[in-house]
Each structure stands twice: as structure tokens, then as C-alpha cells.
């Protein structure tokens, strides 16, 4: 979240960022922040003045009693002051709640390097790796390949659960499992610490990483306990350090975690619903970093490079896109999307988003570090990225390594993970 001081004192920077995001609603609310903060300060000043008067009256009562005088008038005045303080405190609570609700709706301030643009069409290509394979036949989609081989069963999953679920069988199941292990092993070589986090989180955790309150319709809620199925490992892993003060020498903290992810995909019905691309449940290997502000930009580039390394090892062509303001997520200040090539669509599809959140999530979750220079706590920066989305990686392998007879091979890097172990 952004603090009130930033919204008021840096209003020009905030306005410029909101214009880049094409967020007219937040732009209109910016003046309300100043007005509500002024009201909050006014109420605090009044309450403090009344409390000072009450303290003075208490001292007067002591003097009157010692002199044997009548203190009934002073007591009546104190009662009136106490009643006024209570009313003002109640009004202050309402003003602060309203102010906090507005502040929680403001997206992160974009990094100056983020390009202007309204949609993904204005995203900027940063680099490419690999050359798309040419086929002597018309390439099939991964779902056509998988259903013909009997290793992807969307129909049965629909009967057992509903739309946007899939049974992975035989070779597909083994390949998915191999991909998870391969990804984790690769990231361990880069110095990440492995985690298996809870797959359920509470409301406070989702507020900490910015999914709530704005995006509650996008997550699955277990109403009985007010728990939520995680949309990504980013949520529990980032919140691992919630309300902590870390030592600067311990930074950066780098974590890798495999989890299933659950998303309602609200608002996406009718879009990319075929196959494994946009499922309600999918596997993902996530990279999370907790860093100091000075490390932030460098670690973001490193994390993105680590995600790219998976595709390089799998020999899958891809490109890296810097998202424009209108396509950058609510909590992010800068995001790179990694898009893998799909022969079936003769184009690219997102397989990872690598984001730098600055101190936006850290403020919400209370993640701080103690500065060596000042000895004072200050907010960390948080980063994360998919390393990678496993189902989409499986899709890419099936399509890029397909053969004319309807089967497909696997990348050399994965073969050791598919060997039969006795």
C-alpha cells in the first residue's frame, strides 16, 4: 500500500503514475485523501485539546477539595468534556477507516522505466531467445495431442468437478512431476531456499500481498473458516516474514516453492478456456525475494533471468516483455512477462510474470529490516515471479516437441527426471 504522506506530498508523481495506468477512478479519489487526512488531523487536534483541558480540570479539583470548596461545577464540565471526547473519538475512527479504505484502493506507483500504454499491445519487447521451430506438417494444439494420446482428460474432470479442470494421466502426469522437480533443482543451484508453504491462507495474508480487498472475486474462499485457497505461492511465502524486522546483512532472502494454485478466473469466461492455459487449478513453481531498496532493481533482473534459464535449458523459444502502465498489475511497480512460443497459435503466450513491488507489499504486511547505516527499521522491497507455470510449460513442450505421428519427444534436460528408478 501507499502511505497517506506519499499520496499527499508526492501527489504529482502519484498522478503521473495513475495516468500511465489509465486509472481515472483513483485519480478522482486523490483529492479525497487530502480532505479526509485534513479532517483526521483536525479531529486529533480537537481531542488532544479537550484531553489537556480535562487534565487541567482534574488538577483544579484537587485544589478545590484541599480548600474545602465546591467542585460540582468542575465535575459537570469534566463530564461534558468526556462526552465530547467520546463523540470525537467515534468520528475519528470512522474517518480513519474511510481513509484507510480509500488508500487500500490505490495501486503502486510505477517505476519511471515503465512505458506508457493502455493494454498489452503497448508492451515493449526487451529481448528474445531461441528460434521457433518449423514443421513439415500443420502443428496441433497441446489438447489435441494430449486427448488423442489419452494423457489429458478434460471430459472426465468436467464430470468429477466442472469446467476448467483436467486429469493428467500417464506420460503427462510423469512429465508434470518431472518439470516440478527440474525447476526446483535448477533454482536451488541459483541459491534459493526451498519451501513447502500452506495451501490455505487467512484474509490478513491476502491483504498483505495485495489480492484483498480489491480482488476477492478472483480467489476461492472456504466460508466456514474464512480461509482462502492460494492463487499463488507468492501469498504464503511473502507473508512468512510478516510483521518481522530482519537484519540488513541477512538480505536478500530468496525462496522457491512449488504449490498448486487456485483461481476463479472471474471475468475471463469465454477467453482462453480451451486446454490447460487457464485452469481453475494448476501447478506452479514460484520465486520470491525479500530485499533492501538498494538491492531491488538488480535482484529483479536476476530473478527474471533465473526464470528464463528454465526455458533455455528446455530449449523453448521465448521473449521478454516489459509491461506498459495500463497492463501492469495493481501491486507491481514494474513487471517483465516471459512469453513462450506456441507453434499451434504461431505466437507467444505468457508463462511467467516477474514483478518488483517496491515496498508496496511490505507496508501492508509489515516486513521491515534494520538498516546498518541508521540502526532504524525501514520497509523491505518484495519481488516474485513464476519459475515457471508448470502446466503452461507442459503445453509448450507438447507443442514444440510434437511429431507428425501425433506423439512428442521431451527436452534432453528433462530425460534424467523421467528415467525409471528402482
How would you describe this protein?
This protein is of the alpha+beta class. The chain has 13 helices and 16 strands.
* Strand segment tally: 16
Net shape: elongated
CATH topology of the largest domain: BirA Bifunctional Protein, domain 2
Q: How many structural domains in the coordinates?
A: 2
Total helix count? Answer: 13
Strand portion:
15-25%
From the N-terminal CA to the C-terminal CA, the straight-line distance is: 52 Å
Rounded mean pLDDT is 95
Q: Report the structural category.
A: alpha+beta
Strand order of the largest sheet: 1-11-12-13-16-10-9-4
Based on CA atoms alone, the radius of gyration comes out at: 27 Å
Q: Label the CATH architecture of the largest domain.
A: 2-Layer Sandwich
Measured as a percent range, the helix fraction is 40-55%
Q: List low-pLDDT spans.
A: none
The biggest beta sheet reads: 8 strands, mixed
CATH class of the largest domain: Alpha Beta
* Helix-strand pattern: HHHHEHEHEHEEHEEHEEEHEEEHEEEHH
Short summary of the structure?
The protein is α+β, with helices and mostly antiparallel strands and 422 residues long.
Protein topology:
Elements: H1 4-9, H2 11-21, H3 24-66, H4 72-104, E1 124-129, H5 142-149, E2 152-153, H6 154-160, E3 167-168, H7 170-189, E4 193-195, E5 200-202, H8 203-209, E6 221-222, E7 227-229, H9 234-238, E8 245-247, E9 253-262, E10 281-291, H10 296-313, E11 318-322, E12 334-342, E13 347-356, H11 360-365, E14 368-370, E15 377-379, E16 381-389, H12 390-400, H13 415-418
Parallel strand pairs: 4-9, 8-14
Antiparallel strand pairs: 1-11, 2-3, 5-7, 6-7, 9-10, 10-16, 11-12, 12-13, 13-16, 14-15
Amino acid at each position: 500500500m501507499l502511505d497517506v504522506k506519499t499520496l499527499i506530498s508526492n501527489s504529482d508523481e502519484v498522478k503521473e503514475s495513475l495516468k500511465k495506468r489509465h486509472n481515472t477512478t483513483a485519480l478522482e479519489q486523490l483529492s479525497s485523501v487530502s480532505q479526509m487526512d485534513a479532517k483526521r488531523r483536525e479531529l486529533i487536534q480537537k481531542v488532544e485539546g479537550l484531553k489537556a483541558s480535562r487534565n487541567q480540570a482534574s488538577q483544579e479539583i484537587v485544589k478545590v477539595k484541599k480548600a474545602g470548596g465546591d467542585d460540582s461545577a468542575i465535575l459537570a464540565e469534566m463530564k461534558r468534556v468526556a462526552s465530547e471526547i467520546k463523540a470525537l473519538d467515534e468520528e475519528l475512527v470512522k474517518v480513519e477507516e474511510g481513509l484507510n479504505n480509500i488508500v487500500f484502493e490505490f495501486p503502486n506507483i510505477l517505476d519511471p522505466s515503465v512505458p506508457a500504454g493502455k493494454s498489452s499491445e503497448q508492451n515493449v519487447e526487451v529481448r528474445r531467445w531461441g528460434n521457433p521451430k518449423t514443421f513439415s506438417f500443420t502443428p496441433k494444439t497441446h489438447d489435441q495431442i494430449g486427448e488423442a494420446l489419452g494423457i489429458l482428460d478434460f471430459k472426465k474432470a468436467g464430470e468429477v468437478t466442472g469446467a476448467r479442470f483436467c486429469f493428467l494421466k500417464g506420460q503427462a502426469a510423469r512429465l508434470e512431476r518431472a518439470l516440478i522437480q527440474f525447476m526446483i533443482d535448477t533454482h536451488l543451484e541459483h541459491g534459493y531456499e526451498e519451501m513447502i508453504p500452506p495451501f490455505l491462507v487467512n484474509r490478513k495474508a491476502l491483504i498483505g500481498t495485495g489480492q484483498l480487498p480489491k480482488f476477492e472475486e478472483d480467489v476461492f474462499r472456504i466460508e466456514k473458516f474464512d480461509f482462502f485457497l492460494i492463487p499463488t505461492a507468492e501469498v504464503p511465502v511473502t507473508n512468512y516474514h510478516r510483521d518481522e524486522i530482519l537484519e540488513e546483512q541477512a538480505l536478500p532472502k530468496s525462496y522457491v516453492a512449488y504449490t498448486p494454485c487456485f483461481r476463479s478466473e472471474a471475468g475471463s469466461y469465454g477467453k482462453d478456456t480451451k486446454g490447460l492455459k487457464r485452469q481453475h487449478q494448476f501447478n506452479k513453481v514460484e520465486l520470491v525475494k525479500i530485499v533492501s531498496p538498494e538491492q531491488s532493481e538488480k535482484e529483479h533482473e536476476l530473478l527474471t533471468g533465473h526464470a528464463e534459464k528454465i526455458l533455455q535449458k528446455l530449449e523453448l523459444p521465448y521473449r521478454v516483455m516489459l509491461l506498459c502502465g495500463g497492463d501492469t498489475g495493481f501491486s507491481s511497480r514494474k513487471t517483465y512477462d516471459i512469453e513462450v512460443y506456441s507453434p499451434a497459435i504461431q505466437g507467444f503466450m505468457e508463462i511467467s510474470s516477474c514483478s518488483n513491488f517496491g515496498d508496496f507489499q511490505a507496508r501492508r504486511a509489515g516486513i521491515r529490516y534494520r538498516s546498518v547505516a541508521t540502526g532504524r527499521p525501514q520497509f523491505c522491497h518484495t519481488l516474485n515471479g513464476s519459475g515457471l507455470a508448470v502446466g503452461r510449460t507442459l503445453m509448450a513442450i507438447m507443442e514444440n516437441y510434437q511429431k507428425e505421428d501425433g506423439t512428442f519427444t521431451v527436452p534432453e534436460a528433462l530425460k534424467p527426471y523421467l528415467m525409471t528408478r528402482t
